[in-house]
Amino acid sequence: MIEEKEKMFQAVEAMADKEGKYLTFSLASEEYGISILRIKEIIGMMPITSVPQTPEYIKGVVNLRGKVIPVMDLRLRFGMPVMGYTERTCIIVVEISGQAGMLQVGVVVDAVSEVLNVKSEDIAPTPSFGTQLNTDYILGMAKMDGGIKILLDITRVLSSEDAMLLAEAA
Question: DSSP letter string over 43-59?
Answer without folding.
Answer: EE----B--TT--TTEE
